[in-house]
């Protein structure tokens, strides 16, 4: 396991982050329309992906194969504004974890790359 994953609290820490994050997504006017009403399967996939992304067990790959996250997100119109909104929701969720501010910032910084990589639509 990576030090990053361990610093985040391992499986429990990742679960806590995902559970804090998705209510914010569901309430966000730019993001909510992209997600199904039953958010539980999305949350589980996010938990598996973040576990793997931050150096824990390769849960996502074991269940679904290579993440190929950009390809998996192509069906959804992801604009720069939506990427920023996603990161904003994540920042709020990170603040609720109680993790050290430096760790929160490091996690957010690490997620910026993928968030902007998924952009596939221009601004409206």
Automatic annotation (TrEMBL):
It holds the Pfam family Bac_globin. This is Globin. Belongs to the truncated hemoglobin family. Group II subfamily. One of its GO terms (molecular function) is oxygen binding. Keywords: Heme, Iron, Metal-binding, Transport. SUPFAM superfamilies: Globin-like. Gene3D superfamilies: Globins. It comes from Paenibacillus naphthalenovorans.
């Amino acid at each position: 396991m990576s030090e990053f994953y361990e610093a985040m609290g391992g499986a429990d820490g990742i679960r806590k982050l995902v559970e804090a994050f998705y209510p914010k997504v569901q309430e966000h006017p730019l993001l909510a329309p992209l997600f199904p009403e039953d958010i539980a399967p999305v949350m589980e996939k996010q938990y598996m992906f973040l576990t793997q992304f931050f150096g824990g067990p390769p849960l996502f790959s074991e269940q679904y194969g290579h993440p190929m996250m950009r390809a998996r997100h192509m069906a959804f119109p992801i604009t720069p504004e939506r990427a920023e909104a996603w990161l904003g929701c994540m920042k709020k969720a990170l603040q609720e974890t109680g993790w050290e501010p430096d760790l929160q910032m490091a996690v957010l910084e690490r997620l910026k790359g993928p968030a902007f990589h998924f952009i596939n639509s221009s601004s409206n």
